[in-house]
Amino acid sequence: MKKVFFFLFIASSAHSFAKNQPAQQRVDYKMQVSLNDQNHQFEGRSQITYFNNSADTLNEVFVHLYFNAFQPGSDMDVRSLWIADPDPRVGDRISKLKPEEYGHQHLSKVMVNGKEGLIIEMGTIAKVVLKNPILPGKKAKINMDWNGQVPIQIRRSGRNSAEGVDYSMSQWYPKICGYDQNGWHPNPYIAREFYGEYGSFEVEINIQKDFVIAATGEQCREIILENNRKSVCFKGSNIHDFVWAADKDYQHDMITLPDGLQVHFYYLKNQGLEENWKKFQEMTPKMFAYMNEHFGKYPYPVYSFIQGGDGGMEYPMATLITGKRKIGSLVGVAAHELAHSWYQGILGFNESLYYWMDEGFTSFSSDEVMDQLFPNPANPLHVDAVGGYIQLATSGKEEPMTTHADHFNTNYAYSNAAYSKGQTYLYQLKGIMGEKKFYNGMKRFYNQFKFQHPTPGDFLAIMEKESGMVLDWYNEYFVNTTKTINYSVDSVVTSPINGAPTLIVLKRNGDMPIPVEVEIETADGKFQYWYISVDLMRNITYAEEGTEIQWIAAPAWSWVQDQYIMQLPLGVKKVTIDPYRKIADMERGDNVWPIVSE
Ligand SMILES: [Zn+2]
Known about the structure:
Elements: H1 2-20, E1 26-36, E2 41-51, E3 58-64, H2 75-82, E4 104-112, E5 115-116, E6 118-122, E7 125-134, E8 139-149, E9 158-159, E10 167-169, E11 175-176, E12 178-180, E13 183-185, E14 199-208, E15 212-215, E16 218-224, E17 229-239, E18 244-247, E19 250-256, E20 262-268, H3 274-295, E21 302-307, E22 312-315, E23 318-321, H4 327-347, H5 351-373, H6 383-393, H7 411-433, H8 435-449, H9 456-467, H10 472-478, E24 487-494, E25 502-508, E26 516-522, E27 527-532, E28 551-553, E29 563-568, E30 572-577, E31 592-593
Parallel strand pairs: 1-14, 20-21, 21-23, 27-28
Antiparallel strand pairs: 1-2, 2-8, 3-7, 3-11, 4-5, 4-8, 6-7, 9-10, 10-18, 12-13, 14-17, 15-18, 16-17, 19-20, 22-23, 24-25, 25-29, 26-27, 26-30, 30-31
Helix pairs in contact: 3-4, 3-5, 4-5, 5-7, 6-7, 7-8, 8-9
Bound molecules: zinc ion.
Zinc ion binds next to helix 4 and helix 5.
């Protein structure tokens, strides 16, 4: 007995050690950049501390050089030229750029622990071969000198946005690629996803003195220099990226929330934007309050909404959004990008692989925020997302959500998998777990895995603990395959013999099983509500608590059976599968008996 106890003790303490101190890399950046606003070229230096917390010896370091995507012949350009449904913001625009409109970014020198590395530049990725390797558990001092040119804005970053913002500086510095238990992730930039190490940033921007600078994090100082220039510094910690923007006509407003959080707003003056941006400022406390209550507490001291970019794009402690919008659209894009802080920012999924967790969880939570701000009972929450996913599933273009974001055949299949199917994933899970356990699970996941790049398996394990249900089947079907959900009421059989039971025959026509709810109107005009779980869940009771409805737990439906028979000692008027539309049923017309002809 003693030995067993001892063994268990060791095992569980090793586990909690692993959770508290994840073996993940850490990268601290100090950077100085000087921008020439006449030719849009810049020079920069980085002093990076790289913590190799992995068990591996690193002989090279990979670095993103994102701006190199904005040159004719780049991967982003070529892919946009051949893909069937190019992003109209990219289209063939890169192929037509003139040299003075290109983006580029080059490393001129990289020193690692005092020894010069060999730089091999390959489009948007550089490989730096090290003289001496970085050993497991050791940190390395990496100094980089770099230079480049800010492109005409094609996608996300660049100069002269369509709305007239001078500089939208995202993906603008040499960024160390992600490294984890699966090795390096030097994904070329084709305008898709991001993944980087957590650490701290301290960035000094040297620029003509009339520019107003907006950026990730808190401003640390502003010094006026000679020659009409100034140096502005921003810093932040526990973040994996850094964005800034500059314009001479920025209006800068700031509000402080009751918990002390400072929220900044930067938008162009004299464009008639002020009225909507002020209205939007009044709504931001509610956005933070809903997110904090349902999905976990925002951990940073500041957040900045910055007019810039070409739509909406999230960055740590900040977003770039286009600003000439009607109020609903402005608040909608702001709520969406803010919600990314919880997922892209703080959980930091490897977005190339788990883009659907990032966009899906973000869309799910920001739609709930918007429903608080602009209630619209005619359009029930999450139903549009389910509709978008069903369209994808029936389009013939769907690819499994396990497909790497860069490698989808169409932008349509990628974005619907990311946004609509990702949101449907959470919406159905909320139905399976019940509201209370679902939101508790969302917060538990956030608190346990913040700043740690969790995976879909990490998420599901938390939801299993919270619900007491086995849920692995859910990812196996919904994430790993394109199998679909489709139930129907096959028939309702009443025996001519008096007092014999009514048989209700339900059918699973889709390849994917999921728990179903069944509403039965009996001959005497009363309603019954049945809950039929899937046997793989090893739990037959209904999760929802605190509702008016008395749910009756039926025996679980076996995953190997495509038919399920209910017996009722009563006559039946009407049977409805999934009356509250909690599942993405591909064909809803046959969910009701008798079929209503229109
Ligand atoms: Zn998004």
